[in-house]
Structures are given as C-alpha cells and as structure tokens.
Amino acid sequence: MISPPAQRPTALDAARLDAADPLAAHTAKFVRDGDVVSYLDGNSLGRPLADLPQRFDRFVRHDWGERLIRSWDEQWMERPFALGDRVGALVGAAPGQAFIGDSTTVLLYKLVRAAADAQAAAGRTEIVVDDDNFPTDRFVVEGVAAERGMTIRWIAADPAAGVALEQVREAVSERTALVLLSHVAYRSGFVADLAGITAVAHEAGALVLWDLCHSVGVIPVELDASGVDLAVGCTYKYLNGGPGSPAFGYVAARHHDALAQPIQGWMGAADVFAMGPRFEAAPDRRRFVSGTPPVLATVALEAMLELVEEVGMPALREKSIALTDFAEALLAEHVLPLEVGGRCAALASPPAGPHRGSHLTVTHPSFRAVNARLWQRGVVPDFRAPDGIRIGLSPLSTTFAEVELGIAALGEELRGQDRPAA
Amino acid sequence: MISPPAQRPTALDAARLDAADPLAAHTAKFVRDGDVVSYLDGNSLGRPLADLPQRFDRFVRHDWGERLIRSWDEQWMERPFALGDRVGALVGAAPGQAFIGDSTTVLLYKLVRAAADAQAAAGRTEIVVDDDNFPTDRFVVEGVAAERGMTIRWIAADPAAGVALEQVREAVSERTALVLLSHVAYRSGFVADLAGITAVAHEAGALVLWDLCHSVGVIPVELDASGVDLAVGCTYKYLNGGPGSPAFGYVAARHHDALAQPIQGWMGAADVFAMGPRFEAAPDRRRFVSGTPPVLATVALEAMLELVEEVGMPALREKSIALTDFAEALLAEHVLPLEVGGRCAALASPPAGPHRGSHLTVTHPSFRAVNARLWQRGVVPDFRAPDGIRIGLSPLSTTFAEVELGIAALGEELRGQDRPAA
User: Fold this and answer.
1) Number of alpha carbons in the 13 Å side-chain half-sphere of residue B166
2) For the segment A52-99, what is each residue's pLDDT rounded down to a tens digit?
C-alpha cells in the first residue's frame, strides 16, 4: 500500500530557491555534462571544476614539462605545506601545523601511532573509538592496538545520531592514550561536539584525533581554538580534489617536539638533501611527512581551494544548511510517507541544527535495488550497507533543482518496488 | 691548468646516432618546450608525454565528470591492480602480484614490516641493508628495527660500484629476517646481481626485498624467475608518471597468505563495502593496499605504460646502453681530462656491461657550483651531495644530441671554475 504524496508546500520551490541563492553562479563552474541529472554524492567524490583541463594543460606543459626537475626547488618541495596551510585555514589551524600527503588511512596510522606510542610511554594503553566510525578509522585502531599491545575501548554510537559528550566522559580515564572520533559521522551526518569532547578527553589526560573527512570545506571547524591535538581529513569530498587525491594531516604545534611517526622517509628528515647516514626527524611538521609529495594529485585540490577561499566558510555552511533542510522537506514529501513491503522509509540523520552536517541518510530494506535503478536514470546518491541511501549536499556544485529532481525520483523508485517484477 | 679536449673520434657523432636510432621518433612524443636544451634527469623526474593534456581533458570530463562516483565500480576499484599487473609485467611478475599505491617510502615500510614481523615470529631479528642505499630505504629500516627491537646488519657498499654477492653471503645467517637492497644504486648506477643475491639470501632462510626505483621501465628484471619475495619501485622516473606519482609494490603470490602489513584500511579488507565490525584482510594482494587508490595520480603513468609496452623492454635496454656508452665517451672527451683546482673529475660508475644501469655519476669538488650554472643555461642533470653530478639517460625521451650538448656544457662549466670570479 502506498500513501499518496502530500500537497506540496509553497516553500518547496526549487526554482525560487536557486534564483535566490547567492552562490548559484558557482554551480555552473563544475563539469555538468553527461547523463547525470541529479548528483547527490559530492560527499563521496566531488564534481570536477570545469577549468581543470586548462589547469592540467598548464601543469603538464609548464610546471612539469618546461621547468622539469627545477620545479621541486621552485615550488613543489613546499607544496605539501603551502596547500596544508590553506586547507588548515578552513578548519581553524594557524599556519605551520597542517600538511598534505598519503591517503587518509596512512595518515591515520601515522598519527594514531604517534599519539599511542607517546602515551604508552606514559603508561596509557587504551584507545577510545566508536563502533560506528568509518571502517578505516576502526581498522587502523585495531591494527595499532594489536601491534602495540593496547586495548580498544569501544563507544556504542547511536547510528542515527553519533557519539555524545557524556559517552566520551564515561569512556576516558587515566588509562586513555587517545580518543579517535569522526567530527561528522559518515552515515548519519551527526556533528559531534568537537570542542566539548576535546576538553573532556584532555581533562583525563588523553590526546584527541579528529577525522574531518566529512567536515573540511563544508562545516566550520576551529582546531586551534578548540585545543585539538591531531586531525586528518580527505580532499576528494567537499574539496573536489579528484579520485584518490591525497589526505591532509594536522598536528598542533605544541606536539611537534614530542610526537614522532613510524614511517621514516627522506622527506621527513631534518636535512632532506643531506642524505646522511642516520635518520634525524625534521623539527617541524615535516617530520610527519614520509615520501615524495604527491604533486600531480593536488592540481584539482588547488583549483577548488581558490573557489572555497573566495566564497568563505560561513557562506558555504549557510548554503549547505539550506540544501539539507530542503532535502529533508522533500524526503518528508516524497519518500517518508511511502509504505512499501510493509515498511516505511526512515530518516537516520539528526534534526536540523548545529548537530547536522551536509548529508542525510534514509533507510529502507529495498534501497539497494532502488539505488541501482536511480543510478540508471542519472540520479546519483550512494548506498551504504545494509539499507541506507545517503544524500550528500555539496554547496558549491549542487542546485536546489537537482535535489528536488533526485528526491522525487527516489520516491518514484521506492514506489516502483511495490509493483511485482514484469 | 686545463688539458685540451682530445681529438673527437668519429664514433662520437650525435647526429649520426640519432639518425640511426630506431626509437628516435618517440623522443618527439614528449613535451620539449621551454629553455631546457639538454635534459639529463629523466631518472629523477621523467618528461611528460605531449598528449597528456588531452588525456587529462578526457579524464576530467568523462571518467570523473560524467561517470562520477560510478567510475569506482566501472574501473577505479580495479585500477591499482590492472596498472599493477602492467608495471609488474615490465619486471617479470605474473599477474596478481603487483599493485599501485602510496609513496615508495610508505610501501617500503609496509613490506619491510610484513617481512620483519613474519620472520621475527620465527626468531629472525636482523635486517641486512647497505650503507649507500637510498636514504628512505635506510631510514625506513632504522625505524622498523627500532620499533620491533631488531638489529641492522650494515653492508659497506662501494660508492662507485655497489653491493657484491659475496658481501651478502657474509652478511646473512640464521638470524637474518630480511635483505633490503636497491637493484640499481641511486648514485653509481651499479646493477646488483638480483638473482644471485636472492638465492644466497634464501639459502640462509632470509626474505629479500628489492627496490626497483632505478630499474623499472629501463632495465629488464625477472622477479618471478629469480624467486624474489618482495619489491617496490616508483613510477615518476622511467615510467614518467609525474611528480609524486604513486609507487608500486610486488609480493610473490606464495607469500600472500603468510604476510600481513600493519596499515589496515578499508581497501585492504576482505569485503570492501561490508564495512563490518572487525578487520579481516583480503586473501590476495589487496591486503597490501590500505586507503583509497590514487586514481587521478595515475593518468600519466598509464599513458607511459602504453608507450613502454609498445616499444618493449629489450629495445629500451638497448637504447639505454647506447646512450650510456655515448655519455661515457663524451665524458672521457670533455670532462675527465680536465684538471681544475688541482683535481680531475672522476667517473663514479661501473664500466660498460651488465652491471651498469641507465645513469652515470661524475664527481668533482666544484660540481655543486657547476650544476647551478648548467641549470641556468638549460642543461639539467642533477647534483647529489657531496660532489656528484648524475647524468640520467631515459631511453624514450633522450636524444643523442642533447647528451652531447649537455656533456660538452658540463666540460665548459667545469673549465670555467678555473677562472677567478669577475
């Protein structure tokens, strides 16, 4: 049985919202060719900027092709730090603390190890992490705990919300080495209380590592002001760096002396070109870098940083909220009223407000099949096992019109599951 | 005092050599704009192929821009392995054993740890490495030895040659966990006896990890046939993957069950999208991958692989030898006879033959200054402290004419050091 869609409220007028959107002009700066009519997965892989072919042309012909190896001296050696400072500025980090390089997983490993090793020396042997954190975060912690003989203290997260400050307060103790949490939960979009949790962990003497993958470039973060110790994040979601673009790391300046990471490479040595007989770590953030910086892989990231800096985080957050609120209202109109196979779809994300990030998850047992059908018609959210469709709202590239079109299609395809197969 | 250059032998005729070169036409397929008249550093950063702007255009507009997240299912998830197999084929690896990802340093760390941890469990606690190996190789081993309580057994390499088989035979024992060596020495260009050393290490029960950074794409290697256990290499030298393009790793299939690396990430899990509660490593080579594959960073590598596969390793090696022999003869004519500041320049590389790779190093106390002047006039070798100029001969992109021009300029600039500053 299917309930009919409710009467459309006048507020749900995508055309009016796009016309009034001060950032609307930016949506045309992205590649929008092809069959995709509604892209709702910018929180997994951001769209490319349309001027990237020209940027790659210049990079290949000039920076790489003409300057050749000289570009290392002229700009590339500093690139992980110059771009790191710019990404850092988006998350409240003063210069000198953030850097680009490696995958998110490898950077997590380095920084978890750095924190765990330093704290283990002080007799702290527990790592606190939640059971709904992104798999890589959990897997890295499992590996480090196993190899360093440490214990994991699991927090049971609410899948539709996240980790509450009180849960962290109960979990930390004089045994806690490190608390690792995601600022924005990858499924629900719940925004954790970054400053409050950091303070609670510090009261217990623990260090805190925040995963900012679903925050950077879309949610304001104040790493320095919140006293955060460590952070990592990726650059291919809201920073549109392209598939597999490198991650960024942050280590608060006060920890540069005391923390060391285990992957000792030539780029992290005090004197890179001395190539001396024994490793001596650089005194600054460069000690957290290992191998040759991934320069080619940061061309798209740099382009997006220019646009993000031009627009500014407050305006980005404002549009992100408007898109997310709009998506929620459309879900209420097109999807949540539907009863299919004896079950209604349910919103598995927090209500509007400071604890909601830039994506929403809706659940229904038939969503794996629904998602496959949506992709075939050019409506592209993503599916997260076992039963979630995730709707990502990337403020610079997403129009209200494509949100409306996409969620209407979601409702249609869910309704279609009620029909017997032909 | 300066000795005059010797009379030019007729064999040193660059124009004739270029005209007779069966691979000559390929040199025009690379970007050759700008002020560089002689590029002798393709062993550090290969030149870009001239068609890369079109390839990036297609990648940005189609693979990324139109297919968006769907490209992960359609091609990108398999890309580290599809490209890994192609790189593997260049070094004698059957499919299923090589993969792309991370930096060389990070891959070295993973595979040194994998070998060291497995062998330590069998009571083997020494790692054998030579004191002239590339700094990252040495630094990684230092770090792993320190954290795992292992001992490093240093082999004293001959800086102008390399590590001899007999030295390895003396170094290995029932205590040896791993032997880590470079196939081609980064300074001298000495080619180690890969098969012989591997066999000697195996007789002692040790595993062997070969660094192929200066081999892959230029020197034939037979990993499978030589019984090698592990290998790593980079793709921005003779595979022209661009600055900081990702590394490749090789783990012989017989070790996939027994070896585990410490950086447990979502891409190395048995079921990537299950996102289950606990990490279970993939049964195959994917267990050596950690984070999201660096797709964008492999566009240039793929282009070069097509060309390398078209030409084939035997023809590449043949031209590499011809270029290197030519460079040696030119050095004998233009550089080695010069006495400047009371010192003659000296060749710090092996003689022609199977133990010479695709670069030569010449040493002189004034070469730091000489190299700076060469770069100003568009002649680009590289300088390696304390006194070496390294001349890399990348067979697909280097003409005999630019080798002649570059080495003649080297002679002029060295002679110029004899004059008092103006």
Assistant:
1) 1
2) 999 999 999 999 999 999 999 999 999 999 999 999 999 999 999 999
